[in-house]
Amino acid sequence: MINNIESTVASTRVRLARNLAGYHFPNRLEPAVGKEIVRTVSDEACRLHPFNLYSMDEISENVAQALCDDHLISAGLAANRACGAALIDEEDEGVDGPRGKYSIMINEEDHLREQYIIRGLNLMLAYRRLSALDDELSKTIRFAFDKKLGYLTACPTNLGTGLRASVMLFLPGLTRTKKMKTVANIMSGLGHTVRGVYGEGSAADGYMYQISNEVTLGVDENYILTEVQRAVLEVVKLEALARENMLDADFDGVKDECMRAYGILTNCYMISFDEFLRLISAVKLGAAIGFLSVKNFPALDDLIAEVRPANIGLNYEEPLTPGERDKRRAAKGRAALKKIVRG
Question: What torsion do the CA atoms of 254, 256, 260, 262 make, to the nearest 10 degrees?
């Protein structure tokens, strides 16, 4: 059986909201001025890291959607074709821990949304790496800052540190035992929020939820990171208990669902993404509670990302038809699961 944290915590993301002093917020920028900000940020950031620049007016809708699916940009940035851009450093060296990904969204809600995404529960490490980049950028870019309010942001909820610390969690037990509303209320009382897989207003696809801090003003970064870590560990405990209760109520039914899902995914010829997500979520549940033995639990999440509609068609010159995507998704799923799941 996979340990509770590994089978529950998928990834960590820290994000810093920053704006350049002397400019309007992005929603009031003229396109020419927005492009000037892109050049300024890109020049300075690429001096520090080997970022790739993605201009929203140059990339295809499929590429933009793939970046959204991978949480490297938001839908809001993808829609800003006038002066939106993103800088993405695929992976750092990871010499002091697991590898991660940097992403700087330019002219989303704020001029900069600096992000670092890393696998597992790694809040302190993620913040340390992102903060180092932010410190270097601040040496040559003057950020809008007030002595009382801290970093100035387009939305008041980001004032102060501008730090949003988020952890992505796989919560099938709490979802199926109908405890998520209670969990959300508990988190709200602690100053945190529970959202779906793509943030505010999104659904909890595949039992995936984000827990993040709501307060950024009047507290420091260490307090935010420590409190989010504490909240996540408490939810991990609640999820473990919910899985036990779920099995006590219907052991045979849950096991049959998990094994049946594995059987379909390793034998189907065509499959839509919605059906794939439903079935692979059952496979993840089966692996988490010991019905299926997996070599690498996070590889199941990687597989989900790889077969999303935008990602499955990235390496083809011509757009794939829905049927072609469904066949390629099924083939990729069959091959991957045979490597991930032990016989």
Answer: 60
